[in-house]
Description:
Layout: E1 5-6, H1 17-26, H2 38-51, E2 56-60, H3 63-74, E3 79-84, H4 88-91, H5 96-101, E4 104-108, E5 134-141, H6 152-164, E6 168-173, H7 176-183, H8 186-191, E7 197-200, E8 211-215, H9 224-230, H10 239-249, H11 253-272, E9 279-280, E10 288-292, H12 295-302, E11 305-306, E12 308-311, E13 316-320, H13 327-345
Parallel strand pairs: 1-11, 3-4, 3-5, 5-6, 6-7
Antiparallel strand pairs: 2-8, 7-8, 9-10, 10-13, 12-13
Helix pairs in contact: 1-10, 2-10, 7-11, 11-13, 12-13
Amino acid sequence: MPYKKSFASDNNAPVHDKIMEALIKANRDDVIAYGNDPYTDECSKIFKKIFRYDVESFLVYNGTGANVSAVTNLLKPFQAVICTETAHMNNDECGAPEKFAGCKLLTVPTTDGKLKAEQLKKFLHSKGFEHHVQPKIVSITQATELGTIYSVKEIRNIVKFAHNNDLYVHVDGARIANAVAAIGPLNKLITETGVDVVSFGGTKNGMMFGEAVVFVNKALAQNYKYIRKQSMQLASKMRYISAQYTALLSNELWINNAHHANNMAKLMADKLEDISEINITQPVQTNAVFATVPKEIIKPLQEKFFFYIWNHANNEVRWMTSFNTDEKDIKLFIDEIKKQLARLLK
């Protein structure tokens, strides 16, 4: 199959060179398995450093595993997670939360991918009523599936509402780096807002594999190690995840990668603003560009550049950038769009 530049997902990007170097360095000698090794100890310390707090971190294989094991740890079978309709947990995890956590997802429609505190009130009528599932977790995504970002104030409002009503707050942070790169330090966005637990992404930001579950509220981590094992997310050779995270989180690599990805999306959006036939549908705050395009050019574009249709009903597409997207890629893509539109208008 001929190579096509991907704007489909930051998952499609290669492994960053520094991450690959870290993997090679970790591939020496014997160390004790299951995280009882110096690489994982160092990784734990660097998570505390970047959060600026005494967090407890656990490494897992993938994002679904991080989300599902995190909520499983906090729920009883009769309890539920409140999330947006567009949440990865609701749309892209193949029913894993329902199957493994045994919980119900209570979804909220949004236009921008973000929950608002006032939207949560309607779920409180179920509390204490034995015939209804009991809401227990509010799960937000930062940055959202639509590329938008919760402000510190918005998160604080959600956390205040949740904690006042005996609910936990989970953050799906598959693209947490992109949010931090866009609007400010991790401790302001997460630690100081009072969220309870974060699924902290690495794969979309230059790692080969691996994600983390980070408990800001350490009291909630007491039994997580057993949940991780039951969830089939306990890596035997954990050093290969730990070494990647240590490299990613050192010397601002995680922020630099995300800054670059965000900047490439903004560059794309700026170029698209000059094309009247393209309508950008969401604020470009991170590394995602959502746009409606003439249906006739989608397939020809996909023959040259790999991307997904987000909404077939209105021909809305999603274009994602990553740490290895460069300005030449953007130029070639914009030129091809113009070429296809010119062909369409003949």
